[in-house]
Design a protein that fits this description.
The structure holds two protein chains of two kinds.
Chain A: E1 7-16, E2 21-31, E3 36-40, H1 47-54, E4 62-67, E5 70-71, H2 79-83, E6 86-89, H3 101-111, H4 117-130, H5 146-158, E7 164-168, H6 176-191, E8 195-199, H7 203-209, E9 212-217, E10 220-225, H8 227-232, H9 237-246
Parallel strand pairs in A: 3-8, 3-9, 6-7, 7-8
Antiparallel strand pairs in A: 1-2, 1-4, 4-5, 9-10
Chain B: H1 2-17, H2 22-60, H3 68-89, H4 92-103, H5 110-136, H6 139-148, H7 152-182, H8 194-205, H9 209-239
Helix pairs in contact in B: 2-3, 2-5, 2-7, 2-8, 3-5, 4-5, 5-7, 6-7, 7-9, 8-9
The chains are: A alpha/beta, B mainly alpha.
């Protein structure tokens, strides 16, 4: 990798319950600009914890996370500023149920980026148009389907104009027939050159869209490489056994 | 039947019309409403702030780095807990007397003293109501706010509190109704509220039935009216979530 990585993770550790549970045991990853990194692994492997450590929703117990040259894990870093540039999409959408779709999308831009409501609305409507949900701008989240909710959640993150998008199992809570519409939006995003870190069980998506796949188990990166290497020529026994179960 | 009705009418006229004694009731009612209103405002303000301190401490004590912020929060949390313990552990009448004879000795404005005391008292209960509301909100809401870049208090203000408020509205209404009735002990510090007004009439006319029943009926009417109002508000707040 020639250019400076956009996110650089060194020796990342996360222990829960005073060290009784080791979720992450020294993870090292560099993520390049415009790279799509897909993280796979069995449940409890630490892949979600890894993702949540990147924007410090989970505070690492050891190691460093460097984002665009800033040590996020340094004690004096104001994490709120950097989170604005790191969009996050959750398994359970977490839309704000007391606001309309449009307000969900513009709350961050108006309150944090100090955009005018008008500018924020314009940007939000453009993005809604692109995911095909412009007609739902005035709906409340409870009036949407799961797939629609997740597309709105992606747009909500995009409205902050982030440099990186983090996806935490974005399709795991969806009915099967709605998975496609969400993955399509993510694919489009990847094609536009968005830097993405995606934790997922969608092996098809990983194979098709990922630039690099990370296989995690028991809090470490067991194997990483291009999707074809990971899926066609798995080296480690753990990856082979994992793939035999999920493919 | 007609005879007892006539006697009631006569008693009503004697108790309220003669000597314009109805003014004790109307003036008293006004005082009761004023004290309840200001106490509620103060109580909700205290409740929101203290509930935020309490839940901020509970949620963040593990993730915060040692330093000024954490020390402040720990101190505030200790004060908040002390406040809750003392206020909920002593009778409101005693608090009222202490407020009047010990704390606010220099003022003769009893409406102010009563509003303060009932506000501070009710704030303790409202704190716990709102804290329960905050805890009832899915943690994902909190994470979504934080992940956008909102700090703890912004997340509370824009995302958690508005939802929590909706969830606790019935409990808050309950507290408001309790507060309205609790202010009936205002007479202890010589404040002419609705109850005291009725009691003064009783003292003048030596007839207990009419003034006290009317006072009770007015309280009941107020409670029924406010319950209805809150019900309406609740339905309106809920309507957009269907």
């Amino acid at each position: 990798m020639s250019a400076e990585p956009i996110i650089s993770v060194k020796n990342l550790e996360k222990h829960f319950n005073d060290g009784a549970v080791h979720a992450l045991n020294g993870v090292n990853v560099d993520i390049a600009k415009s790279e799509v990194l897909v993280v796979i692994g069995p449940s409890g492997s630490g892949k979600s914890t890894f993702l949540r450590c990147l924007n410090l929703l989970e505070r690492p117990t050891g190691g460093t996370v460097i984002f665009e040259g800033t040590h996020l894990t340094a004690p004096r870093t104001n994490i709120n500023v950097y989170r604005r540039r790191m969009g996050m999409v959750f398994q359970h959408f977490n839309l704000f149920p007391h606001m309309t779709v449009l307000r969900n999308l513009t709350l961050g831009p108006t309150e944090l980026l100090k955009k005018s409501q008008e500018d924020a609305n314009k940007k939000a409507m453009q993005l809604l148009e692109r995911v095909g949900l412009a007609d739902r701008a005035d709906a409340y989240p409870s009036q949407l389907s799961g797939g629609q909710k997740q597309r709105i959640a992606i747009v909500r993150a995009l409205c902050m104009e982030p440099d990186v998008m983090l996806f935490d199992e974005p399709t795991s809570a969806l009915d099967p027939e709605m998975v496609g519409e969400v993955l399509d939006v993510m694919k489009e995003l990847a094609n536009e050159g968005m830097t993405m870190v995606v934790v997922t069980h969608e092996m098809g998506f990983a194979r098709e869209v990922a630039d690099r796949v990370l296989f995690m188990d028991e809090g470490i990166v067991v194997e990483e490489g291009a999707p074809e290497d990971i899926f066609e020529h798995p080296k480690s026994e753990r990856l082979q056994s994992f793939l035999s179960k999920v493919l | 039947m007609a005879e007892s009705f006539a006697r009631l009418k006569e008693s009503f006229i004697f108790n309220f019309i003669e000597g314009a004694r109805w003014k004790y009731i109307t003036n008293g009612l006004w005082v009761t409403l004023k004290v309840t209103f200001f106490a509620l405002l103060l109580g909700v303000a205290i409740g929101v702030v203290v509930a935020m301190i309490r839940s901020a401490y509970d949620q963040m004590k593990d993730e915060m780095k040692p330093g000024f912020g954490k020390t402040m929060l720990t101190v505030l949390n200790t004060i908040a807990r002390l406040y809750l313990t003392v206020i909920r552990g002593t009778p409101v009448v005693v608090q009222l007397l202490i407020g009047y004879f010990v704390i606010f000795v220099s003022t003769t404005n009893t409406v102010f003293v009563a509003s303060m005391v009932f506000g501070i008292n009710s704030g303790a209960y409202i704190t716990e109501i709102i804290r329960g509301g905050i805890m009832s909100i899915d943690h994902g809401q909190f994470e979504a706010g934080r992940s956008l870049g909102f700090d703890y208090f912004q997340t509370m203000r824009f995302i958690v509190i508005p939802q929590a408020f909706k969830n606790v509205l019935p409990a808050l209404a309950n507290e408001f109704i309790a507060l309205l009735k609790e202010t009936a002990v205002c007479g202890y510090i010589g404040l002419m509220d609705l109850t005291k007004g009725g009691d003064v009439i009783r003292g003048r006319t030596f007839s207990a039935f009419m003034p006290l029943i009317v006072v009770a009926a007015i309280y009941l009417g107020l409670v029924i009216f406010f319950s209805w109002l809150v019900g309406k508000l609740e339905r309106r707040l809920r309507s957009n979530e269907r």
